[in-house]
Amino acid sequence: MAEYIESLQLLAEKFGRLEGVGKKTAMRMAFSILELEEEEVRSFASAILDAKEKIHLCPICQNLTDREVCSICADEERDRATVCVVSDPRAVLAMEKVREFSGVYHVLHGLISPMNGITPEQLKIKELLQRVSEDGVEEVIVATNPTVEGEATAMYLSKLLRPFGVRVTRLAYGVPVGADLEYADEITLFRALEGRRDV
Amino acid sequence: MAEYIESLQLLAEKFGRLEGVGKKTAMRMAFSILELEEEEVRSFASAILDAKEKIHLCPICQNLTDREVCSICADEERDRATVCVVSDPRAVLAMEKVREFSGVYHVLHGLISPMNGITPEQLKIKELLQRVSEDGVEEVIVATNPTVEGEATAMYLSKLLRPFGVRVTRLAYGVPVGADLEYADEITLFRALEGRRDV
Questions:
Q1: Chain-chain contact of B2 with A64 (C-beta, under 8 angstroms)
Q2: What is the DSSP string of A9-51?
Q3: What's the CATH fold of domain A57-198?
């Protein structure tokens, strides 16, 4: 019986530690691994190690990258005067799909959430302030999720950024309230970008 | 932008090859890996290799095991005269949860499905026939799913097993316990009616 197979149980536990993977899904995935060819399994394991080893944060925008500076920050054609602040790298992916934003990003790696014990100090806010103070930033678009935490973080940032004399904007409520940027469709995201307003 | 991060993209592809994992889920999982501690990631990778290396098929029942013979086949208290035939190891798990079945299993590793090019030769049917011919089996419960493929496989097996003089049974069809008659489909209701019993 598979519950007695220690290595399978262990593998299912590992899968279960990934975000959004429940117990049944984790077990299904563990079984899936056994169905793969041995070569495939080896390359799976090394892909995991590889990704973890090679990928780190871009020293400028804090997004994930496998280069010294991420491809967006390294791109000469991006407008460095406009910084779009997002909560996580997935939001950058979502924004990039719009193909309408030519500025750069800043990834906070979380949202302020006292309920979950996440304080501003744990986010990449210090790095954002430093960028704004040094880099000739003119506008900061706070594109955090339209949720309680996202709003709170946006309010907090706008207060912090005011002394720097930059324009602080927020995505328009074209994004459905309560949703996740990752799942917003491109047109909604585009409208939200277009209709951004001063905080 | 994460789409340009080759190792992340590769990892997401690997996750996408697991059963029931779509593109977005695969990408979320790849991101999840990056959020784990390095130590955790290493043990994840080795759990994958470990499971694949250690787990093989039990030579008797064809279920997955990390021992020479699986724990059920090795259990002296299980009734070897009753063999429950299932399509895959997950069905064994489901059956074992009932705690009412004291016989042994036989895992086919698939169902006959000409549409998907799965022929009887690809399943562990040869091994089942050998068991039945040698091991003093008295009853074979064909517990394949009540689907077209499951039915076809059950019919095929019952024909093959008849010459051996064993009793071949099939799990009862009926309304699931706790369900509402209103939502039962007609075929299920028909079968439930057909299989009605005295109270």
A1: yes
A2: HHHHHHHHTSTT--HHHHHHHHHHHHHS-HHHHHHHHHHHHHH
A3: Dna Topoisomerase Vi A Subunit; Chain: A, domain 2 (3.40.1360)
Half-sphere exposure of B146 (CA within 13 A, CB side): 11
Identify the three-state secondary structure at position B12. Answer: helix
The burial class, CB within 10 Å (0-12 / 13-18 / 19+), for B181 is: exposed
**Which chain B residues touch A38 with a CB distance below 8 Å?**
52
State whether A51 and B40 contact (CB < 8 Å): no
pLDDT of the residue at A1: 43
**Tens digits of per-residue pLDDT, A50-74?**
999 999 999 999 999 999 999 999 9
Are A141 and A85 in contact, with CB atoms under 8 Å apart?
yes
Q: What is the DSSP string of B41-68?
A: HHHHHHHHHHHHHH-EE-TTT--EESSS
**B183 to chain A nearest CA, in Å?**
25
Size of interface A-B (CB pairs under 8 A): 172
Task: Provide the 3-class DSSP secondary structure of residue A134.
Answer: helix
Q: What is the pLDDT of residues B13-64, one digit of tens each?
A: 999 999 889 988 999 999 999 989 999 999 999 999 999 999 999 999 999 9
What is the phi/psi pair of residue A64, to 5°?
A: -75, 145
A2-54 belongs to CATH 3.30.110.40: no
Spell out where B47-136 has E strands.
56-57, 64-65, 79-86, 103-107
Residue pair A112/A154 in contact (Cβ under 8 Å)? The answer is no
The complex's ipTM works out to: 0.75
Q: Exposed, middle or buried by CB within 10 Å (0-12, 13-18, 19+), for A143?
A: buried
- SS3 category, B153: helix
Q: Do B64 and A3 touch (CB under 8 A)?
A: no
Tell which residue, B63, B85, B60, has the closest CA to residue B150.
B85
Which of A5, A6, A33 is the closest to B52 by Cβ? A33
Domain boundaries, chain A: 2-54, 57-198
Distance from CA of A107 to the nearest CA of B (A): 11
pTM: 0.74
Burial class, B161, CB count within 10 angstroms (exposed 0-12 / middle 13-18 / buried 19+): buried
